[in-house]
Amino acid sequence: MTFACKLAERPTRLKHRFVRLSLAVPPVRSGLAYVWCMTLLVLMGFVACEHSVGPPISLPVGAVAVSPASATVLAGQTVQLMATLSDASGGPLSQRVVMWASSNTAVAKANASGLVTSVSAGSATITATSEGKSGTASLIVIDRVTSGDQSILPPGPPPSLPQAGASAVDPIFGHRLIRLTDATLCPGGATHAYSYWAALNVDDTRLLADCDGVPTIFQVDLASGTVVSLGPAFQATPLWWEGTIWSRSSRTIAYGVYASTGNARLLAYDFGNQTYTILKDLHTDTRFTNVFGSSSYLWQLSADTAQKRFAATVKATSSGNELGAVVWDRTTDQIWTYALPSGQALDEVQVDHTGRYLVMKLDGRQWQVWRLTDPSPGPVMADGPGHSDNGDAVLFQGHGNGLTVRTLDPPGGAVQIFAAARVDGKTNPYADAHASVLAADGWVYFSTYTDASSGGPYAPWSLYSGAIYKLDYNQELLLRPQKRLPEVVRMGRTLLTRVSQIPTAPGQWYLDATNQLYVWNPNQADPRTSSMVVFDWRPIHEEIVRVSTDGSRLERLAHHYSHIGNEVTDYGTIPFGSVSYDGRYVVFNSNWGGGGRVDVYAVQVQP
To answer: pLDDT tens across 338-363, in order?
Structure first.
């Protein structure tokens, strides 16, 4: 007699294959033969039955989490959401069907894979559902401030950027903000140098910043949000950090002056292999030493766009006082020198983009322009520019009131080509600004800010009670007619809280119905002797903006979120917005809402 037994292979991917095995046994004692057959099959590792192996037990979905949990995007942009499934014990699950839905399809729509497309300004909740369990993400969609819009737009709380490389969309203007340094990279804080020195190299892959007092090079990938410290910048020989100029043709080369009060060398420094080349040692050239001697050094380098001509301030080795200015042409080896008359002091010098003009800013708000085809500079002029940057035979200066331009040939007075909107017929009396024209892309970039010098009250404070001080703001408005009633009060970097009654705790301020301002400083300091900042909001105020060089277009890029108390003692908190050579990013400093720490950030400029 023959029995047929179905033998099941071990399951693979939940599929079952069966083979047939025939065994011959004696025709008698058939029951024992059947037992013998089954025992043999078990010992061989097979399960001999039709329902031999089924799929593993399927655990139900216990929870759904959506990431990111919240996002802010511009209308028309997309954001990819991800759903993470887990069982009741928190164990991960996969290969389950997830359904996506939007609570407001007029604002945002979600497809089957969780890709959300924003449609128009508003808010929506995106829900991911699997086996009856759901998770959500909140989405805010904003419209970018239209070109030329001069609405009053206070910043609100700064977006969360917890570490270097983190990015977020500016909640008001819609441009991407990127944090470039943090406490891990620079425990004591970091700053970039100034608005007319590029912080990023020619292809935006290297950042030069002061990190804990040490000039440092960082490798950056601004698209992916990766920032890595490459260590101290000047390992082969020291250079003055202020005035180091990235090459416009090589990603690792920068130009600078030797950081010593005993020589006058101009160098090309290669950060790639930490080597340097001496381009010019002015102490070996009598055309220089006959004017300034050998007890001199160079300070704060500038260059034309071709990086053919370099200019610097010349200082005395012993005193550090300014002796004059020098320009050197690396192609022809031509030198221009100018010795300051006795009793005159020099703030800074800068060549224009063409290399044909040298702007000399003197102390006392005076200035001179040297057309380098002439034997000497032009006459000293009053009403000199400040915090400006040069273009092609022109000079631009930004302010809270707008943008002005001066011609360099012939030198002219400031002409306003873009005017910030007036509020109640009043111009902005507060904001100072720093201009940056490094990109040469038809735009002037500038960052506006308010400190105690421009936002400090003119009217006297009086002690009201205890640690509370009082100021009659009616008198303040008489002394400074362009002001309006206050909306913001800061003590140094600290933003004070507005309350509806006379302050009852430190850090509060109150304006009553008769315009009496009461302030209780957080450290109980007398506001008469502290960096008290009081202002009202205006268009392009405490922002990073760009204006076309003909003044016809305005684009507001971001709030910089830096609170400045005193621009001397809080110098590092000033944004100094510096545009990259390609015009894609503006790098700036910020204490990000008034904290004690300062870091370097960037805003990505939309094409």
So the answer is: 999 988 899 999 999 999 999 999 99
Q: Which residues, including other chains, have CB under 8 Å from residue 57's CB and lie 6 or more apart?
A: none
Instruction: Decide the pairing of beta strands 82-86 and 108-110.
Output: unpaired
pLDDT for position 43: 43
The full length of the chain comes to 607
Distance separating alpha carbons of residues 369 and 27, to the nearest angstrom: 121
Is the Cβ–Cβ distance between 564 and 450 less than 8 Å?
A: yes
Name the token pair of 59.
């655990």
Residue with tokens 């609170």: 563
- Starting at the edge strand found earlier in the chain, the sheet holding 296-303 runs 296-303, 309-316, 322-329, 335-339
List, for the chain, all residue ranges whose pLDDT scores fall below the cut of 70. Answer: 1-57, 72, 74, 142-147, 607
Please, are residues 309 and 355 in contact by the beta-carbon 8 Å criterion? yes
Cβ proximity of 416 and 423 under 8 Å? no
Cβ partners under 8 Å of residue 597, min gap 6:
183, 189, 591
Rounded distance between C-alpha atoms, residue 175 and residue 411, angstroms: 37
CB contact at 8 A, 335 and 312: no
Q: How many CB atoms lie within 10 A of CB 342?
A: 5
Structure tokens at 541: 């105020």
Residue 535: the pLDDT is 96
Which residue in the block uniquely carries the two structure tokens 């729509």? Answer: 109
* Rounded-to-integer distance, Cα 166 and Cα 178, Å: 6
The C-alpha atoms of residue 533 and residue 564 are separated, in whole angstroms, by 9
Q: Does the model's pTM come out above 0.70?
A: yes
pLDDT of residue 6: 39
Average pLDDT over the chain, rounded to whole?
A: 89
